[in-house]
Design brief:
Elements (H helix, E strand, L loop, with lengths): L3 H23 L4 H8 L3 H8 L7 H4 L2 H16 L4 H15 L5 H9 L18 H20 L15 E4 L9 E3 L5 E3 L2 E3 L5 E2 L4 H11 L6 E6 L2 H9 L4 E3 L12 H6 L5 E4 L8 E6 L2 H9 L3
Parallel strand pairs: 7-8
Antiparallel strand pairs: 1-2, 1-6, 2-5, 3-4, 6-9, 8-9
GO molecular function, one term: DNA binding
Organism: Halobacterium hubeiense
Pfam families: HTH_3 (PF01381), ThiN (PF10120)
Length: about 300
C-alpha cells in the first residue's frame, strides 16, 4: 500500500524544490537566501544546484509545475509573495495534479495498480471520492458476510438457488453499483460457503430486488435473501419488522414488488410464496449489509 502523500514527498517535492531553487538562483539570490526562503539547509540548495537530487521528468515537464515555479520564484525574489502564499500556491498545485489523469495521480496509480480498476475522475483524498465510497461498501459487505459465515445454523436459511448479501452505493443506478458475493452464498453439507470476496456487479437477482425497492421508495441500502417459511415471516414480524407479501407473477421479477413497496416504503421484509418454476423467497432489507446479516442471525 502506497499513499499518494508518499508520491508527493518522494517525487513531487524534490523536483519542485530543485526547480524553484534553480529559478531563485537564476534571479540572483545567494544559496543562503534560497535556503531561508525554502526552509532547507544550504547544503540541500547546493545539491539542488549540482543536480544531486533526483528530478522526476514527468513532474518537471508539466506546464503547470513550470508556470507555478516561475510565478512563485518571481514573487519570492521580489518580496511580493510571502512564504505562506508560496506554500498555498504549491499546495493548490499538488491538489490539481492529484486529480485522475494528472501527473501525481498517474504516478500514484503506477505504484498502486489496483486504482486503475476505478473509472472516472477522482482524488483518493477526496472524502466523497468514488474510490472511498465503493471501498466502504465493499468493506461493509465483507463485514456482513463474516457475520453470516460465523452464524451457527445460517446454512439452514439458504434457499436452493443460494443466498446473496448485497449493498449499494448511495446513488446507485444499476447492478454495477451494487456489491455482492460472486456465485452466491451456498449451503455445502450444512456449512455456509462463501465462494469469493465481494465485488461490484456480480449479483443480478438480489441486486435487482434492492434497486427495485429503492426505486419504489425504500431507503434500504442492503438486501439479503433467505428461504421462505411462514414461521420465518412470523418470527421477523414478532421482532418488530414490517413484512409485506408480493406476487412474483409467475417469475422471479423485481418489477413485481415495486407496487407493494410504493404502498409500504418502510417495509423491512418482502416475501413471495412461490409459483410455477419460482422458489419462495424472503428478502430482508436494511441500512447496511451487516444490519441485514444481523436480521438473519436473529432467526437462528
Amino acid at each position: 500500500m502506497k499513499f499518494i502523500e508518499e508520491v508527493v514527498v518522494e517525487e513531487f517535492l524534490p523536483t519542485f524544490r530543485s526547480l524553484l531553487a534553480a529559478d531563485l538562483r537564476e534571479r540572483g539570490l545567494t544559496q543562503h537566501e534560497v535556503a531561508d526562503l525554502l526552509g532547507v539547509s544550504q547544503s540541500a540548495v547546493s545539491k539542488y544546484a549540482h543536480g544531486e537530487v533526483t528530478v522526476n521528468d514527468a513532474v518537471a515537464g508539466d506546464e503547470r509545475v513550470r508556470e507555478t515555479v516561475e510565478r512563485v520564484g518571481e514573487g519570492l525574489a521580489s518580496g511580493d509573495m510571502s512564504q505562506v502564499q508560496a506554500l498555498v500556491e504549491a499546495e493548490v498545485l499538488i491538489r490539481r495534479l492529484s486529480a485522475r489523469g494528472d501527473v501525481v495521480a498517474d504516478l500514484h496509480e503506477a505504484a498502486m495498480p489496483a486504482l486503475a480498476e476505478y473509472d472516472g475522475d477522482f482524488r483518493v483524498h477526496d472524502p466523497e471520492s468514488e474510490v472511498r465510497v465503493r471501498e466502504r461498501v465493499l468493506s461493509s459487505v465483507r463485514r456482513g458476510v463474516r457475520i453470516l459465515e460465523h452464524a451457527s445454523g445460517f446454512a439452514t436459511l439458504i434457499p436452493a438457488v443460494g443466498s446473496n448479501l448485497v449493498e449499494c452505493t448511495p446513488d446507485a443506478d444499476g447492478v454495477e453499483d451494487v456489491a455482492g458475493v460472486p456465485g452466491r452464498i451456498l449451503d455445502v453439507m450444512g456449512r455456509t460457503e462463501i465462494p469469493a470476496d465481494p465485488e461490484f456487479g456480480v449479483s443480478v437477482h438480489v441486486a435487482s430486488v434492492l434497486l427495485a425497492a429503492r426505486d419504489a421508495g425504500s431507503d434500504a441500502r442492503a438486501c439479503l435473501n433467505v428461504h421462505y417459511d411462514p414461521d420465518i415471516v412470523e418470527e421477523l414480524e414478532s421482532l418488530g419488522y414490517e413484512a409485506v407479501e408480493f406476487d412474483p407473477e409467475g417469475e422471479a421479477s423485481a418489477d413485481a414488488l415495486r407496487p407493494v413497496v410504493r404502498d409500504h416504503p418502510e417495509a423491512d421484509v418482502l416475501y413471495q410464496t412461490g409459483g410455477f418454476g419460482v422458489e419462495p423467497i424472503v428478502y430482508v432489507l436494511a441500512d447496511s449489509a451487516p444490519a441485514a446479516a444481523e436480521m438473519a442471525r436473529e432467526l437462528l
